[in-house]
């Protein structure tokens, strides 16, 4: 016998999975029925030989070369005993084998059917001759747990087990397991009854030998007999014995691990001691006297030398001065006693001790009887529970003949509860089929009669139209019971319906697969070979299905996948083999035309009854055109400046273009659903939601709101538009929208509005100034020519001011130095080619308020005009000095501009000949400026020229940038 390398493990010799790939014989129900009939007959006549008969039957029917049953040894869970064995290994019957050294141990641990090949490679003890080629084992159950295995062996290398062997072995194994439990329960009940009868006989003999105490003991026995509870028995006996002997206390209890437990007592004149008490004070030698049946008698606790001081104190505390203890039983840890105690010393007579012994024995007998009866009831209950909890329905019927001797009807003799659940019939025992159903199917009577006529068991599936049910029947005759048959059956109506539904479903699936434009496919989970492909495969792959499924079609499929995607596909299939559904995308190259196609496969595991992955199913979708369209759309979307997005359900975004992420910083997990609203300005979110709430009614929307820019945190204005995308039925399936940056446009528009308002304001002011200037000039002009000259000069001054204003930006101001220089240049007294007759001294860039520019310019122009006509700029020796400076006044620190206009070298006219009154310029300076500009002014005609001062408030930021 060759030995495998020692590195082999148990799973290396388990080949259970091979059964799924082996061909299997058709179910042989006739053989099965014959085997069951044989076992039923054995169960009836020789129940103790049932397991051996099962093994012999398996060998006789050719199911195996050897068959056996291994059960775990009672009291030794580490070993099996071959309690039944037949065939070529029959000589090993009765032998034992260690739990860990046998395939049986593996089957018990896993509690499942297993198939081994040459198990001696791992279990050397299984190497007996003839060698095992294959051994098939199933768990042998007692209730919910396995207690052994049923196994069959083929020694012939040419013979391999198949699915039919598995079915037969499981079927016969379940029957044998149920029968074994039934025999065990009956044996336990019989043994209990025998023990009870023996005990009764022994106690009866003892009663006859003690006739002098017969009256008391008979009365006690009569009183104890109806009791079934051990505590009640002990309580009654203690009371009767205490009253009979006139003692202080009688109790029944037991000692375990130095603890006395008193379950009940009868006390007279002393307290009850029911409960637990320590016995540690009593010497070991004294406690050694408590042997089974021993009577320990103490007449005087205080004087008995067997008791130490601690024990005496403890007894005295319980008011015990004398006692007799009868040891009813003793095991490794526990001592049961009947104790009689008195509160005074007492010399116990032999008659009293005999009475105590007699009562103790009766108490012990009654308690044991109660326990035996309880065990018997429990055993019978287990048998009844087994009978009533069987999944299969069971019935015994008596087949009836008519007057001509033909089988005509049948009467129910016995049924189990499963019968009613399988048939939905009322309790039938004692009634005939005709009485129950009115017009029953005659086939039932014919089948029962056939079994009685031929003596051959029958396995058949039969429908009962009256009940609308279909049954799987095992019918066999009961030997020794005339015209009676037993029927073991199951309701298979739902299974039949399920089979029909499965056939219909498979046909629907086939039609669906042929009509689908997607590929539906199924693979084996182990070899990954295709079992099923729909016609869509040929359209998408450009390859006939027959060619695709030939040879190693998994390898062939991988060869069609582009190398860059092959690892992804292999990984996806492996994940599904582990039970995880996946969806993955990959590309194939069609062998016919070399075209590259994009496929998306949704793959899922298909599990067997045990939860293992048996098959792999998948749906392959060709989305090449959709992907190309998506790429084109993506290129378009990513190339435009707008932020593009898609949404569903009134505002829940599903996708946004990369521009959105770049601008807002939100990634897909942040902007999906209503997350995009976080990027919208808090003040604008209500408007955004309101626009969406009206979108469905209006067929779209347009709204403006601000969106935060990630780069600098600035909120910029965007115009957002959305339009619905509809399917062919006109139903909105999603929304497509864009958000366009209009922040600069809004800024320019706002500035334009400001400028227009400013223009209107300045125009009104300018017209008012022109009108006022014209009126004043007209009043003082000598004639039209004089008016034209004066008015033209003043309009020129206004024009220069407007020119300065028009060149300013929105937030700029006219500066004083620019204003004075512009007026002097216009008069030709400042700039290139001009004599140095003007001196300017003051800071540059002093900003003037817009409201003061025109009035101040007119005042300066009047001063300059007078100087050019009459003063320093007219006379040859004249000189004009203009000086200005800033000062801060008041608590608020308001800036003021101070202007000092001083002419010198001017030949002034005689004051007596000077004209009275004031001219327009002086009136403007002395009256208009203080009134309109809050200015402070002086105007003095000195001996050598005019001296004028003007002080006016200016802008809070008095200097222009860069000044």
Question: What is the topological layout?
Answer:
Elements: H1 29-45, H2 50-60, E1 66-73, E2 76-87, E3 96-98, H3 103-110, E4 114-117, E5 134-142, E6 145-154, H4 163-209, H5 214-224, H6 230-245, E7 249-256, E8 259-267, E9 275-278, H7 284-287, E10 295-298, H8 309-317, E11 322-330, E12 334-342, H9 350-389, E13 393-401, E14 407-415, H10 417-423, H11 433-437, H12 442-454, E15 458-464, E16 469-477, E17 484-491, H13 493-515, E18 519-524, E19 530-533, H14 536-541, H15 545-548, H16 553-560, H17 563-577, E20 582-589, E21 596-607, E22 613-622, H18 624-639, E23 643-648, E24 652-656, H19 658-664, H20 668-671, H21 685-698, E25 701-708, E26 715-726, E27 732-741, H22 743-780, H23 784-806, H24 816-826, E28 838-841, H25 850-869, E29 879-889, E30 894-904, H26 920-933, E31 936-941, E32 946-953
Parallel strand pairs: 28-29
Antiparallel strand pairs: 1-2, 1-6, 2-3, 4-5, 5-6, 7-8, 7-12, 8-9, 10-11, 11-12, 13-14, 13-17, 15-16, 16-17, 18-19, 18-22, 20-21, 21-22, 23-24, 23-27, 25-26, 26-27, 29-30, 30-32, 31-32
- Structural class by sheet pairing and helices: alpha+beta
The overall strand count is: 32
Q: Which spans have pLDDT < 50 for at least 5 consecutive residues?
A: none
CATH architecture assignment name of the largest domain: 2-Layer Sandwich
- Largest sheet report: 6 strands, antiparallel
Global shape: elongated
Organism: Sphingomonas carotinifaciens
Protein name: histidine kinase
Keywords: ATP-binding, Chromophore, Flavoprotein, FMN, Kinase, Nucleotide-binding, Phosphoprotein, Photoreceptor protein, Receptor, Repeat, Sensory transduction, Transferase, Virulence
Pfam families: GAF (PF01590), GAF_2 (PF13185), HWE_HK (PF07536), PAS_3 (PF08447), PAS_8 (PF13188)
């Amino acid at each position: 016998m060759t030995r495998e390398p020692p590195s082999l493990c148990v799973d290396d010799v388990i080949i259970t999975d091979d059964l799924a790939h082996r061909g299997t014989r058709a179910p042989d129900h006739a053989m099965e029925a014959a085997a069951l009939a044989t076992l039923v007959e054995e169960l009836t006549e020789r129940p103790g030989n049932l397991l051996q008969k099962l093994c012999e039957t398996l060998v006789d029917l050719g199911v195996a070369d050897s068959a056996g049953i291994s059960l775990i040894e009672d009291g030794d869970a580490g070993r099996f005993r071959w309690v039944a064995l037949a065939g070529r290994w029959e000589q090993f019957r009765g032998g034992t084998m260690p739990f860990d050294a046998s395939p049986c141990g593996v089957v018990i641990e896993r509690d499942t059917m297993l198939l081994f090949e040459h198990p001696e490679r791992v279990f050397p003890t299984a190497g007996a001759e003839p060698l095992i080629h294959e051994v098939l084992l199933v768990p042998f159950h007692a209730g919910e747990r396995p207690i052994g295995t049923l196994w069959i062996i083929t020694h012939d290398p040419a013979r391999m087990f198949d699915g039919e062997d598995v079915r037969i072995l499981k079927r016969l194994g379940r029957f044998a397991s149920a029968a074994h439990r039934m025999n065990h329960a009956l044996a336990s009940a019989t043994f209990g009854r025998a023990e009870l009868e023996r005990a009764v006989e022994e106690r009866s003999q003892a009663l006859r030998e003690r006739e002098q105490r017969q009256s008391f003991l008979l009365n006690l026995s009569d009183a104890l007999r109806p009791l079934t509870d051990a505590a009640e028995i002990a309580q009654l006996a203690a009371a009767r014995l205490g009253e009979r002997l006139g003692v202080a206390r009688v109790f029944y209890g037991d000692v375990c691990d130095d603890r006395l437990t008193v379950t009940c007592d009868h006390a007279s004149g002393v307290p009850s001691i029911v409960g637990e008490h320590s016995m540690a004070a009593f010497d070991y030698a004294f406690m050694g006297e408590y042997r089974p049946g021993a009577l320990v008698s103490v007449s005087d606790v205080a004087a008995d030398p067997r008791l130490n001081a601690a024990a005496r104190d403890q007894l005295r505390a319980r008011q015990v001065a004398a006692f007799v203890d009868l040891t009813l039983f003793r095991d490794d840890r526990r001592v049961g006693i009947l104790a009689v105690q008195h509160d005074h010393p007492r010399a116990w007579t032999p008659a009293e001790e005999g009475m105590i012994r007699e009562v103790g024995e009766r108490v012990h007998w009654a308690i044991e009887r109660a326990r035996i009866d309880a065990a018997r009831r429990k055993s019978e209950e287990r048998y009844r529970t087994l009978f009533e909890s069987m999944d299969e329905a069971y019935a015994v019927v008596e087949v009836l003949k008519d007057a001509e001797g033909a089988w005509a009807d049948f009467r129910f003799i016995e049924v189990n509860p499963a019968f009613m659940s399988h048939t939905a019939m009322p309790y039938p025992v004692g009634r005939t089929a005709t009485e129950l159903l009115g017009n029953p199917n005659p086939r039932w009577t014919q089948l029962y009669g056939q079994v009685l006529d031929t003596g051959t068991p029958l396995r058949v599936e039969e429908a009962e139209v009256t009940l609308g049910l279909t049954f799987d029947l095992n019918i066999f005759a009961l030997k020794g019971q005339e015209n009676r048959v037993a029927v073991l059956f199951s309701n298979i109506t739902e299974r039949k319906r399920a089979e029909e539904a499965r056939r219909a479903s498979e046909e629907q699936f086939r039609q669906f697969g042929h009509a689908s434009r997607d590929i539906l496919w199924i693979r084996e989970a182990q070899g990954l070979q295709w079992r099923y492909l729909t016609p869509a495969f040929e359209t998408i792959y450009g390859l006939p299905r027959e060619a695709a499924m030939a040879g190693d079609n998994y390898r062939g499929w991988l060869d069609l996948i582009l190398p860059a995607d092959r690892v992804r596909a292999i990984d996806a299939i492996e994940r599904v083999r582990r039970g995880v559904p996946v969806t993955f995308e990959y590309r194939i190259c069609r062998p016919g035309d070399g075209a590259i196609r994009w496929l998306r496969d949704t793959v899922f595991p298909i599990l067997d009854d045990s939860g293992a992955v048996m098959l792999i199913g998948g749906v392959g979708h060709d989305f090449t055109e959709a992907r190309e369209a998506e790429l084109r759309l993506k290129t378009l979307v990513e190339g435009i400046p707008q932020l593009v997005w898609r949404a569903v359900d009134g505002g829940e975004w599903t996708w946004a273009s990369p521009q959105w992420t770049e601008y807002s910083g939100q990634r897909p997990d942040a902007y999906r659903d209503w997350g995009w609203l976080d990027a919208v300005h808090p003040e604008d979110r209500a408007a955004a939601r309101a626009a969406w709430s009206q979108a469905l009614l209006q067929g779209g929307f347009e709204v403006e709101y601000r969106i935060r820019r990630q780069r600098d945190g600035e909120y910029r204005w965007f115009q957002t538009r959305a339009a619905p995308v509809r399917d062919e039925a006109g139903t909105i399936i999603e929304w497509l929208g864009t958000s366009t940056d209009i922040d600069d446009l809004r800024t320019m528009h706002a500035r334009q509005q400001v400028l227009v308002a400013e223009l209107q304001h300045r125009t009104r002011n300018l017209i008012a100034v022109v009108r006022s200037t014209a009126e004043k000039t007209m009043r003082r002009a000598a004639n039209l020519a004089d008016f034209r000259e004066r008015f033209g000069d003043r309009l020129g001054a206004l024009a220069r001011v407007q020119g300065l204003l028009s060149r300013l930006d929105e937030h700029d101001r006219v500066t004083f130095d620019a204003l004075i220089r512009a007026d002097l240049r216009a008069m030709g007294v400042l700039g290139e080619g001009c004599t140095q007759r003007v001196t300017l001294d003051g800071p540059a860039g002093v900003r003037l308020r817009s409201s003061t520019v025109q009035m101040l310019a007119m005042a300066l122009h009047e001063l300059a005009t007078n100087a050019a006509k009459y003063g320093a700029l007219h006379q040859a020796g004249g000189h004009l000095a203009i000086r200005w400076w800033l000062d801060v006044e008041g608590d608020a620190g308001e800036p003021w501009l101070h202007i000092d206009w001083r002419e010198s070298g001017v030949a002034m006219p005689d004051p007596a000949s000077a004209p009275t009154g004031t001219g327009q310029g002086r009136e403007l300076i002395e009256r208009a400026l203080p009134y309109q500009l809050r200015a402070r002014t002086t105007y003095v005609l000195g001996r050598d020229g005019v001296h004028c001062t003007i002080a006016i408030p200016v802008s809070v930021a008095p200097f222009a940038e860069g000044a």
